[in-house]
Structure formats: structure tokens, C-alpha cells
Amino acid sequence: MEEGQDAKLKHDSELQFRIEARRNKLLGHWAAGLMGLEGDAADTYAMDVVKEDIKEPGVEDVLAKIRTDLGAKGVEFNDEMISGKLEECERMAIEQLKEEGYGTA
């Protein structure tokens, strides 16, 4: 029984990591678009957002990076806009992973 619980815990942890990484990539692409980045520049920025979350647990570092970067580019934004997009990106990430065959917990 303990092995089964360990396997489920491992699966749940891996799934949560995938959801967060995908969410952050989607959020990064959204922010890149607001900053006028396209193609490789947008992809690179999105991966930078993913890496930001890996440095430190929690989403605050990701949100801080996006706020700072949008502000530096003179993009008008507010926290509600970013938080709403974060939630939307998380839902999209879950749906995409389901479609790719990764079950949800």
C-alpha cells in the first residue's frame, strides 16, 4: 500500500510541476506579446519566465518578473490583469496536458 501512495505522490508532484511550468510558459508568451516580442524573442522570454519559477518556489517571483518587465517596456497593466491571466493560463495548461495524455490528480 505504501508503494502505491508513494507512486501517487510522485505522479501528483510531477503533474503539478508540469502544470506550473506550462502555465508560466503560457503567461510568458502573453507578456511577451504585450511587450511586442515575437518569434524566437517571445519563446526565449517565455522560457525565462519558466526558469524564474524554478529558482524559487511559489508564483510571486514569476509575477514580480512580469510586473518589472512590463513596467520597463512602458506597458499599462494592473495586478488584477496579471492575476486573471495567470488563472486563465493555469486552466489552459491543465487542459493542454489532459489532451496530451497526462491525467490530473
- CATH level 4 superfamily: Domain of unknown function DUF1476
What CATH calls the topology is: Major Prion Protein
The number of helical elements comes to 4
Order of helices and strands: HHHH
How many discrete domains? 1
CATH structural class: Mainly Alpha
Q: Residue-averaged pLDDT, rounded?
A: 92
Distance between the termini: 18 Å
Stretches with pLDDT under 50, minimum 5 residues: none
The largest pleated sheet is described as:
none
Shape: elongated
Query: What portion of the residues fall into strands of 2 or more residues?
Result: under 5%
Description:
The structure is a single chain. The protein is an all-alpha fold. It contains 4 helices and no strands.
Write a concise keyword list for the protein shown above:
mainly alpha, Major Prion Protein
Q: How would you concisely characterize the structure shown here?
A:
With 105 residues, the protein is mainly α. Helices cover 80% and strands 0% of the residues.
List the helices and strands and how they pair.
Elements: H1 2-34, H2 39-55, H3 60-72, H4 79-99
Helix pairs in contact: 1-2, 1-4, 2-3
